[in-house]
Amino acid sequence: MAVRWLMTGALVALWMASAAMTSAQQAPAPVMLTPSGEGLPDGPGKDVTVRSCGTCHEARRAASARLTRAGWAAVIDSMIGRGARIADGDVPVVLEYLSTHFLGEAAQPLNINTAPQIDIEAAVGLLRREAAAVVRYRERNGRFKTIDDLKKVPGIDFSKVERRRAFIVTL
Ligand code: HEC
Question: Which range is the signal sequence, renumbered to this chain (predicted)?
Fold first, then answer.
């Protein structure tokens, strides 16, 4: 009997280990892009921002949302948490650049490619079935490259997305 329990325990441990491995494999691979300032407005701090924000994803796509200053500060913090290496002295420069050129009213961005259905529903103001359609479309067709790609999702009222365009990102 005891042996049986031990074996069950071992199997559960194995299953847990393989589940952990699978989710580790699904984490976004660290791609190193060549930072480019294409499409970003000129101004003080642009170079530092492009260097700081353009290695893991395109800087232009990251800086497509319009957020409050506090919102941008939180994004920068969260990117440092995800491994962005930004010198202490550069943080205020990046914050200044982003909150000068990309200032808005939203406290945080919504990444339409990773947000759970419930967040899409609440933040974009979609019906439950519309948010479900967005997730289904994303699962079948891969990531949305632009916000306009959401027009292809069957059964959603795109004008609702249009109204929230300012804080939706497609990373
Ligand atoms: C070390 C890599 C790295 C760097 C450098 C980086 N980011 Fe990110 N960023 C990520 C990852 C990973 C995600 C999540 C993408 C995903 O879920 O597929 C992300 C997502 C985002 C999002 C979407 C919201 C979210 O939290 O998913 C924004 C906005 C963003 N980054 C802005 C920035 C800005 C601004 C900078 C520069 C200050 C920056 N990033 C630098 C890795 C990085």
Answer: 1-29
Which residue CA neighbors atom 31 of ligand 1 most closely? 62
Ligand 1, CB within 6 Å, residue ranges: 28, 52-53, 55-57, 62-63, 65, 75-76, 78-79, 82-84, 94, 109, 111, 114, 169, 171
Which residues are registered as beta bridge partners of 110?
168
Query: What backbone torsions phi and psi does residue 164 show, to the nearest 5 degrees?
Result: -105, 10
CA 57 to ligand 1 centroid distance, Å: 7
Q: Which helix (H) or strand (E) covers residue 111, if one does?
A: strand 110-111
Where residue 26 falls among pLDDT bands split at 50, 70, 90?
very low
Query: 36 CB contacts (<8 Å, ≥6 apart)?
Result: 50, 54, 58, 59, 60
Q: Which domains does the chain have, with CATH numbers?
A: 46-101 (1.10.760), 110-169 (1.10.150.280)
pTM of the predicted protein model: 0.81
CB 99 within 8 A of CB 72: yes
Looking at residue 20, its pLDDT comes to 47
